[in-house]
Amino acid sequence: MAGQPAERRVYFEDVQMHAPLETPAMTLTETHTALFGSLTLSRPADPAAIPDLIPLCLSSGLGWRVPQPPLVVLAFMGFEWRFHHPTRVGDTIRSVSTTVAKRSLKEGGVVIEERSILNQRNEVVQSGRLTLLVAKRPVA
Amino acid sequence: MNGEPVVYFEDVKVGDEYVSPGRTVTEADIVVFAGLSGDYNVLHTDAEHMKASLFGERIAHGLLGLSIQQGLLDRVVPGQSVGPLAGVKWKFKGPIKIGDTIHVEARVTGKKDGDAPAAGVVTLARRVLNQRGEVVQEGETDHVVARRPA
Predict the structure, then answer these.
(1) Nearest by CB to B68, which of A40, A73, A78?
(2) Would you state the pLDDT for residue B1?
(3) Does residue A75 surpass a pLDDT of 60?
(4) CA A2 to the chain's CA centroid
(5) pTM (2 decimals)?
(6) What is the ipTM of this complex?
(7) Which pLDDT does position A112 carry in this prediction?
(8) How far is A44 from chain B (nearest CA, A)?
(9) pLDDT value at A44 more than 80
């Protein structure tokens, strides 16, 4: 990456197991629903209901705002997810992620992360496991 | 919803199939999704970096593809036969690139009792295909669907 600032990154080797990372929180608004609706061409019947996929989508961005450099994700391979409670406009969500498994491959490694999304009452509204392909540290 | 006939759990049959219309995924979709989600990973936002990558160019966020197929499928399922999501098991099989046209094919593969007696759970197997017929995403979704009132 000639000419680019040497940004700090978390590579496969750096990923800590069983070390929960909590994100900052974000309040869900009608604007989130409107932007999401413009992408998906859909609109909830109840304008105060947040579409089920929004908290999951926001949790990936909130994950960039934890006090550690970003993980070098090469690909999002898959996930399993449960929706426990609906969210409404005005709810404030945050997410907590923990790496529960790491498997080294020839090119990169697989990281399995458990993630819970909580609301302002500390109820888990959504949770599941994500499988990520993460880069290994480049050999200098 | 808007005078559409309501479809109850009893009306959904294992083997029912739905095919959505297509939708071309644009650069604007990716930029809006990056802004909405806050996921600015280089995979989706840095065209120069991605030239040298496995994919050769920016790709759509996996969760953008998931969100788009959800919207596409909602357009073809009758009434409320696909109710709120209860669960998702999903695999991202290949990239969705700018200009790709995707659609979703879904099939009812299971029906079971839910936590509450007033509703059941319907399982759909879904495949998201691009314009070349390649499966780019696939998985299963569980939906809570109301039973016909007694």
Answers:
(1) A40
(2) 43
(3) yes
(4) 29
(5) 0.93
(6) 0.92
(7) 98
(8) 10
(9) no
DSSP string spanning chain B? -TTPPP--GGG--TT-EEEPPPEE--HHHHHHHHHHH----HHHH-HHHHHTSSSSS-B--HHHHHHHHHHHHHTTS-TTSS-SEEEEEEEE-S--BTT-EEEEEEEEEEEEE-SSTTEEEEEEEEEEE-TTS-EEEEEEEEEEEEPPP-
Is the CB of B36 less than 8 angstroms away from the CB of A57? Answer: yes
In chain A, what residues touch B91 (CB-CB under 8 Å)?
77-78
Q: State whether B39 and A61 contact (CB < 8 Å).
A: yes
- Which of B36, B54, B62 lies at the smallest CB-CB distance from A36? B36
* Coil/strand/helix, residue A36: helix
Q: Is A38 on the interface with B (CB under 8 A)?
A: yes
Most confident of A67-71, A105-109, B10-14, B96-100: B96-100
Task: Find chain B residues with C-beta within 8 A of A65's C-beta.
Answer: 38
Nearest by Cα to B120 from B138, B99, B143, B104: B143
Res. A134: pLDDT tops 60: yes
Give the pLDDT of residue A1: 46
DSSP string for residues in A105-132:
-SSSEEEEEEEEEE-TT--EEEEEEEEE
